[in-house]
Specification:
Elements: E1 18-19, E2 25-26, E3 31-37, E4 40-45, E5 48-53, E6 58-63, E7 65-70, E8 78-82, E9 91-92, E10 94-101, E11 106-112, E12 118-124, E13 131-135, E14 148-157, E15 160-168, E16 189-193, E17 213-214, E18 220-227, E19 230-239, E20 243-252, H1 257-262, E21 265-269, E22 280-287, E23 294-300, E24 307-314, E25 330-331, E26 343-345, E27 349-355, E28 357-365, E29 368-375, E30 379-385, E31 395-399, E32 411-412, E33 419-423, E34 427-432, H2 442-447, E35 453-456, E36 460-463, E37 472-474, E38 484-490, E39 496-502, E40 505-506, E41 515-520, E42 537-541, E43 552-560, E44 563-571, H3 583-591, E45 595-597, E46 600-602, E47 627-632, E48 635-637, E49 641-649, E50 656-660, E51 667-672, E52 678-683, E53 690-697, E54 703-712, E55 716-721, E56 724-726, E57 732-738, E58 745-748, E59 751-756, E60 765-769, E61 780-788, E62 791-802, E63 807-815, E64 818-826, E65 838-843, E66 846-858, E67 861-868, E68 878-883, E69 886-891, H4 897-954, H5 971-979, H6 1002-1011, H7 1014-1025, H8 1032-1045, H9 1050-1068, H10 1083-1121, E70 1149-1158, ...
Parallel strand pairs: 21-26, 48-54, 56-62, 70-77, 76-78
Antiparallel strand pairs: 1-2, 2-34, 3-4, 4-5, 5-6, 7-8, 7-9, 10-11, 11-12, 12-13, 14-15, 15-16, 17-25, 18-19, 19-20, 20-21, 22-23, 23-24, 24-27, 28-29, 29-30, 30-31, 32-33, 33-34, 35-36, 35-37, 37-40, 38-39, 39-42, 41-43, 43-44, 45-46, 47-49, 49-52, 50-51, 50-53, 51-52, 53-54, 55-57, 57-60, ...
């Protein structure tokens, strides 16, 4: 032993491969050992040690690679050191002992190196990378073998106990000629120290002069554990006479190791009924609880270990016999004069028989025993057993698709006790112990017979500890077939009693509310003086003593706690059930609640109630007894099998096939094609793998036969050979995988309806012919699916379809008497083999088979060589080639090749001369055509540039002739659109309520008083904002609701806003103060926006509003001056490059004389002059007509645009103008909208306006807006992306350059610039040389806060002010004029306003941006104006700063006036109700925040009072 060196080369290894989606964890190597302690799982694999959390999340991993080197202590000893995986290593430590020492907070890990040298670690239980102690010592077996290691505790005194490592190791037989590098004196059963203070030091196994227990023969240890003061060891001991015996060893824990070893006693476990040996123990688990020590084991009862049984023994120690007398085990140095054969223990019960059980874990759940059983084919089966050893139907908790074997040892999750750790070869699964949540009603929950599940409060099936109020019901302590049973009794006086018995257990609250309600079809069913219900039974004494002959329908409702059960029964007079004493009559009698006595049916109190009495009776029907000879197939996957065939004798009367799983309800399958000796049926799917019994059912209910069907894993496909096929299909392909003999058909994804039957199939291989590609063209991948019963399973790989092989030519040569033919094929990716190809030489009518020899590839071609044996023909005219189901015929063209080549040589000069002449002629025509096109292009570009220059010099000449009255919104609608952009009308009172002072009801009054407390309100806001579920949308809604609720007290609202802003500034000062108020990410930022809107509405209405409306109107008129595309809304005149219609065609201005139809007699109004463009669509003309009407007369036309139609006066006849009609131009599948130019409407034409009600439309689509997807069907001014004949419409093919039309942006800017400039100057102007009160007050507040926070950078203050006023309020108004006016904003107008808003914000920027030729046009448009605007902004900020401050009283008076102006305009009650929803949702968090802020008790009580008021009233309402 030596001390731990200061430096450990402990390296955390790479993590396991992955944590699976199902909660499992996959490791890099095979699992050797695993252990569970507290909240961690420890797994030792071949090369690593893992520490996982209880939910199998990786915590640590430790490499087991290292160096084995010589040490000085002891001299010449070998020592193991871990190294980094990147460093050289010469050995791997294989762990054979892994024990969590919870009391000591350590993990004991021992193993052997590749040279069989022992090494032990003591690791930190919480962090295995922390090595507490290490030593090179042998603990556990040197080589692989069935060994056991367990921690045992020895009580040295009442106040002190010690722990030891008990190891039980098979004898290590060693060839004496071979020298061992690390020898050790190791016995069969050893006790090692766990503490350096113990005698001999840590890991010592000395026994005070007496050696440990040894075994001379071979032994295989299976399990070991300690209960109280007894150690139990289970082992298999080979026996020459009997093959194997299972031995149980008891060791009494004494104060010394020697005394412990000398106390050895043993017993033989014999699960067989005959008491013989030969059984073998595979897995073991103690059944916890109970005075006696119950133990269960998985025994194999055959030599191959496939037939296994789960057996229960009582292994309570028998200490009456003499110790240390076992013939197989002894402690050295003990005289054994009385060696005798060990006693034999018989099983308490054989619980379960199943093939290939490998592991078991037993737990107690209430009065039940629950066994979790692992199998060799990858299943975890749960078996619940009552105290009478009656097992219910086993359920499968986990089922692997393959045949992975479960590790022999399983453990329960120590944290929640609701999961089982199931280890496989290299994977650990964490499986829930129950599937309670899958059961949807109380009947399903009870019928599952799961001790873990309870039905909780009439709501759900769940675990008992998840049912909080103890109001639950569950299965009883012993097995029962039904949840509710009934019986019918008759007394000597003729009184009939109907008894109901419930078979339930319950929670604490349930029995206080037990009741039964009986109801018949008519009249009164039960007497009033009947006995009261007494759980678990209730009775009904029938009011009538005679039951009707046809029976009496009765419904029973049972209530236990909040759980309600209902049963519908038919009460029958037991004496009326007559007939010969057959099993059918007996079953009818028992099901009716009666009893069977003396071969007839009688009342329940006079006969036997158990249906087992019926099994001894004959059916009473005369059927031939059927016999089963075979079932094909008899081995299937757990998905079942369709069209199975059963063969036998006397099958004519069989109606069904019954599939019986032990202790489960049988499943039955109908039969057809019954010939008497064969019949067909479907084998249904199964939840578990294993063997089930099969019998055939007769009409009398009897079932005959004892055949078996084995359910195994599902087929899986891992590879496809070859992995490609040709599109014509029928290539023979082989699938490899497992259980492929269960496959009934193969399909491909591209042709799911084509099912290919397997040709040859075995466990690992399946061959089939691929289906054709069908309509799918080109190269593509297709997934392969396996059809198994009614399931379709995908292969892990897909198959690739390539075009069919192309055979180009063949050549034949003589070789003695044989003819050798070489077939040439274009190279491809099909990898065709000679076996897939057959060929025949054809001469005349004869076909000569050509035997394929070899395939070669060169020069991007494949060459197949074949021979025709003993052929008199040396050259064949044709060659027929077969592959798949395709036949190709190649012609031998060698005879005519010479003439063909000669002809080609003569034609080549002629062709060259002809091509030269044609080329010269075409070249001249093309050059002339290109010159004309270039001239046209230059002319078009000159005209576009000249027109742009003219526009720049003549803009602003005819705008703003008449804008009419400005349609201002009133205050409440303006404020609501600012506060609630998505639902503005929810908190506005209806017309007629504005002036009415409405009294709030009590609950809303209480909440109103509560939010008037600033401590509560700020605490509430902070509490809500700290919640992750409280989104930005919620924060904005909260701010606006507070604004509405406190609108009558703006002074208090201002104080709250200041307090919240101060808190926000403290947060921002720690990071970036310049980011304050830039975005709306908090409640107070939205609150500031609302506050500015309230305070600045007067200034907006009186000063800024007119300039804003003029600017918007001027911009709208300028856009309408030029072409506007109806479909995309792009225009020639715009401020935004993204909305520029640079593809606009040539157009002309038209003055139209518009007549409006008056009355129904054809009268018309005086003509109205309307300006339009020749490229305007019909819908645009209508809009301009109605706009001109409103501008001239001051009111809108009385017919909406959708119902308006127009006609054109053409030569005295009015022609309807429609957007789309039969004359519309169609390009491909896209239709061009009709324009005035399409109808050839001249300047000065007369247009008549009518209502659609007076003339039905010719086209089914009256308007472009009627079509939801019009952009995909119509176009206007922008050509669709389709080919078109240029001669049809040559002017639309003129080349258009976007850059040429960028001057339109500038001309639009010039046209509206004066309006923009006036608007900006009004915004940052100061009426009467004084800033607005709200602006001055808030800017002073920001100055004060900057001083308090010691912020001296003037840029920070400038940014704060810019973010709070221009960015937060004015930009919102500039981009959304619909907030101020009753108007609609188009997407195009929004794009233009965004450019103006950007210029507005650039005026407040402190940075100077250098713009180049690649800068965006929205920046370049106002580049020369921004410097002047910046100077005006600086002067504006300076004037506000130098203005004398306003007093608090002056500002409060201003706020009071604003509150009074708009009193009673908002629905305060609705806002309070919405506020309470937030308070109710986060009431716990708000209370916690109030406690943190030291709120007085009265405030918490007031909140509680408000909550009670709202809970009492469903909602706040008006009186």
């Amino acid at each position: 032993m030596f001390l731990l060196p200061a430096l450990l080369f402990i390296l955390r290894g790479e993590p396991g491969r992955c944590r699976g989606e199902d909660g499992g964890f996959t490791f890099d190597g095979d699992i050797r050992h695993f252990a569970v302690a507290t909240n961690s799982v420890y797994i030792a694999t071949e090369e690593k040690l893992y520490q996982l959390s209880h939910d199998l999340t990786l915590v640590r991993s430790l490499t087991q690679r290292g160096l084995l080197s010589s040490g000085s202590i002891p001299p010449g000893g070998l020592h193991f050191h871990r190294v980094s995986e990147a460093d050289p290593w010469n050995t791997t430590l294989r762990v054979n002992v892994l024990l969590p020492f919870v009391d000591n907070n350590t993990l004991i890990s021992c193993g052997v190196t590749d040279d069989e040298c022992g090494y032990c670690d003591i690791l930190d239980l919480m962090d295995i990378s922390n090595v507490v102690y290490r030593e090179s010592i042998q603990v556990g077996p040197r080589r692989g073998g069935a060994s056991v290691s367990v921690l045992v505790s020895v009580e040295k005194s009442p106040s002190r106990s010690e722990s030891f490592i008990l190891t039980a190791v098979p004898p290590q037989h060693q060839d004496k000629k071979i020298k061992i590098r690390c020898p050790s004196d190791y016995k069969t059963i050893n006790l090692h120290n766990t503490d350096d203070q113990q005698s001999g030091g840590i890991f010592s196994f000395t026994t005070e002069g007496k050696p440990p227990v040894k075994s001379e023969g071979d032994v295989e240890f299976v399990d070991g554990f300690q209960i109280s003061s007894t150690i139990y060891l289970l082992s298999n001991v080979p026996s020459c006479a009997t093959g194997n015996k299972v031995l149980l060893i008891w060791l009494e824990v004494k104060t010394t190791k020697a005394e412990t070893f000398e106390s050895l006693r043993s017993a033989r476990l014999s699960p067989s009924e005959d008491g013989g040996d030969g059984n073998r123990l595979l897995a073991s688990s103690v059944i916890p609880g109970g005075p006696s020590v119950l133990w269960c084991g998985v025994f194999s009862v055959d030599a191959g270990q496939s037939s296994t049984e789960l057996v229960v023994f009582d292994i309570s120690p028998d200490l009456s016999g003499k110790a240390d007398t076992d013939p197989d085990f002894c402690s050295d140095g003990t005289d054994k004069p009385g060696v005798k054969k060990a006693k034999t223990l018989r099983p308490e019960a054989v619980l379960f028989r199943q093939n290939n059980m490998t592991s078991v874990l037993a737990v107690r759940q209430k009065a039940w025993m629950v066994f979790f059983i692992g199998t060799g084919d990858g299943q975890l089966i749960k078996l619940a057993v009552d105290k009478n050893y009656h097992a219910v139907c086993p359920t499968v908790l986990y089922r692997a698709n393959d045949d992975r074997r479960v590790f022999p040892k399983m453990h329960l999750d120590q944290v929640d006790h609701k999961h089982v750790y199931v280890p496989f070869q290299n994977k650990m699964e964490r499986v829930p112990v129950s599937k309670c949540s899958t059961y949807t009603n109380v009947e399903e929950c009870w019928s599952a017979q799961d001790p873990y599940c309870v039905w909780c409060g009439s709501k759900s099936c769940t675990f008992e500890d998840d049912c909080k109020d103890s109001d639950w019901v569950s299965i009883p302590d012993t097995y029962q077939q039904k949840m509710v049973s009934h019986s019918v009794e008759r007394s000597q006086t003729g009184q009939i009693t109907f008894n109901i018995q419930t078979h339930l257990t319950y929670g604490k609250k349930a029995p206080s509310n037990f009741a039964c309600q009986f109801a018949g079809t008519s009249g009164k069913l039960c007497r009033i003086n009947g006995p009261p219900p007494q759980f678990p039974q209730c009775a009904c004494i029938l009011s009538e003593i005679i039951l009707p002959a046809e029976g009496l329908k009765v419904s029973v409702k049972i209530r236990l706690g909040t759980t309600e059960l209902s049963e519908r029964l038919m009460l029958t007079n037991c004496s009326d059930i007559r007939g010969p004493p057959t099993s059918v009559v007996c079953q009818q009698c028992i099901k009716a609640g009666c009893g069977w006595s003396n071969s007839h049916c009688t009342w329940a109190n006079q006969g036997e109630r158990n249906d087992s009495v019926c099994q001894t009776l004959k059916s009473g029907m005369n059927f031939s007894r059927p016999e089963i000879s075979s079932i094909t197939p008899s081995v299937v996957s757990f998905y079942g099998r369709n069209h199975a065939v059963l063969r036998g004798h006397n099958l004519s009367d069989v109606i069904r096939v019954r599939i019986q799983i032990k202790d489960c309800l049988p499943r039955e399958s109908p039969v057809w094609n019954n010939t008497g000796v064969t019949l067909t049926f479907h084998i249904p799917s199964a939840d578990s793998k294993g063997v089930v019994k099969i019998c055939v059912l007769l009409p009398d209910g009897s079932c005959h036969g004892d055949s078996k069907i084995t359910y195994q894993s599902a087929p899986s496909c891992t590879d496809i050979i070859p992995s490609s096929t040709w599109v014509s299909g029928k290539r023979k392909v082989t699938l490899t995988g497992s259980h492929l003999d269960f496959v009934e058909g193969v399909t491909h994804r591209h042709a799911p309806q084509v099912v290919k039957l397997p040709g040859n199939s075995s466990y690992q291989n399946l061959t089939y012919d691929t289906p054709a590609a069908g309509s799918t063209q080109g190269t593509f991948n297709s997934t392969v699916f396996l059809k198994v019963a009614n399931e379709t399973l995908p292969c892990s790989r897909s198959i690739t379809y390539y075009p069919d092989p192309v055979f180009t030519s063949f050549a034949s040569t003589s070789k003695g008497d044989d003819v050798r033919i070489v077939i040439e094929k274009e190279a491809d990716k099909l990898d065709m083999t000679t076996a897939e190809l057959s060929a025949f030489g054809i001469q005349g009518e004869e076909q000569h088979p050509c035997i394929m020899l070899v395939k070669e590839t060169k020069n991007k071609s494949d060459f197949f060589t074949c021979e025709i044996k003993s052929s008199p023909i040396t050259r064949f005219q044709q060659l027929k080639i077969n592959y798949g189901d395709q036949t190709i015929t190649l012609q031998n063209n060698s005879s005519s090749s010479f003439l063909f080549m000669l002809l080609v040589l003569l034609l080549i000069p002629c062709i060259i001369i002809t091509v030269i002449i044609v080329y010269r002629s075409k070249q001249k025509k093309l050059t002339a055509k290109m010159n004309r096109r270039i001239e046209d292009l230059e002319l078009n570009i000159r005209n576009d540039i000249r027109q742009g220059f003219v526009d720049l010099q003549t803009e602003n000449a005819d705008l703003m002739e008449n804008v009419g009255a400005i349609p201002f919104l009133d205050y409440k609608h303006f404020a609501s659109r600012i506060f609630f952009p998505e639902s503005e009308s929810l908190y506005i009172k209806d017309i007629g309520q504005d002036a009415v002072r409405v009294q709030l009801d009590e609950c809303c009054q209480g909440l109103s008083r509560l939010i008037q407390d600033q401590l509560f309100l700020t605490s509430m806001v902070h509490a809500l904002e700290e919640q992750k579920s409280f989104t930005i949308k919620d924060k904005c809604a909260l701010a606006s609701l507070l604004t509405v609720a406190l609108h009558g007290n703006l002074s208090y609202l201002t104080e709250v806003m200041e307090a919240l802003l101060k808190a926000l500034m403290q947060q921002s000062s720690n990071t970036q103060p310049k980011l304050l108020l830039r975005r709306t990410e908090s409640t107070v930022e939205k609150l500031l926006t609302n506050w500015m809107s309230i305070c600045l509405y007067g200034f907006l209405r009186e000063s800024v509003g007119q300039h804003l409306f003029l600017m918007v109107s001027a911009l709208t008129q300028q856009i309408a001056k030029g072409p506007v595309d109806c479909v995309t809304e792009k225009a020639l005149y715009t401020l935004n490059e993204d909305w520029l219609l640079w593809q606009a065609p040539d157009f002309s201005c038209l003055r139209l004389k518009v007549l409006f139809a008056v009355g129904s007699d054809g009268e018309v109004s005086e003509p109205l002059e309307v300006n339009a463009l020749s490229c305007d669509a019909v819908e645009q003309v209508k809009e301009k007509i109605l706009s001109s009407f409103k501008a001239k007369f001051g009111f809108a036309y009385n017919i909406p645009l959708r119902d308006v139609c127009i006609e054109y006066d053409k030569n005295g006849c009015f022609v309807p103008l429609d957007e789309v009609d039969r004359s519309s131009e169609v390009v491909g599948v896209v239709t061009m909208l009709n324009t005035l130019n399409h109808y050839k409407v001249p300047d000065g034409a007369t247009i008549k306006v009518l209502s659609k009600r007076t003339r039905p439309p010719l086209s089914p689509q009256g308007s472009l807006k009627d079509d939801e997807d019009f952009s995909g069907k119509y176009f206007h001014l922008i050509d669709p992306d389709v080919d078109e004949d240029q001669r049809k419409n040559p002017e639309r093919k003129k080349l258009k350059l976007k850059e040429v039309h960028l001057t339109k942006l500038l001309s639009t800017k010039v046209a509206v610039h004066s309006f923009v400039e006036n608007l900006f100057k009004t915004i940052w102007g100061t009426p009467h040389s004084r800033a607005l009160l709200a602006v001055k007050y808030f800017f002073d507040f920001l100055d004060t806060q900057a001083d308090n926070m010691k912020i001296t950078d003037p840029d920070v203050l400038h940014i704060w002010k810019t973010n709070s006023l221009p960015l937060r309020f004015w930009v919102n108004i500039l981009k959304n004029p619909q907030f101020v006016f009753d108007m609609e904003k188009t997407q195009h107008l929004d794009g233009c306003l965004s450019v103006i808003a950007q210029a507005f914000m650039d005026s407040f920027s402190l940075s100077d941006t250098q713009l180049g030729k690649h800068a965006p046009t929205n920046k370049l448009l106002y580049a020369k104006d921004i410097p002047k605007f910046k100077q005006e902004v600086k002067a504006y900020y300076k004037q506000i700063r130098e203005q004398s401050p306003i007093t608090d009283s002056e500002f409060k008076e201003f706020l009071q006036v604003e509150s009074k102006k708009h009193e009673n305009e908002f629905n305060e009650a609705a806002a309070l109700r919405e506020l309470y929803r937030y308070i109710q949702r986060y009431s716990t968090e708000i209370k916690e925040k109030l406690d943190q802020n030291g709120a007085p008790t009265e405030l918490t009580e007031q909140l509680h009072h408000v909550k009670n008021l709202f809970d009492g009233l469903k909602s706040c309402s008006w009186n």
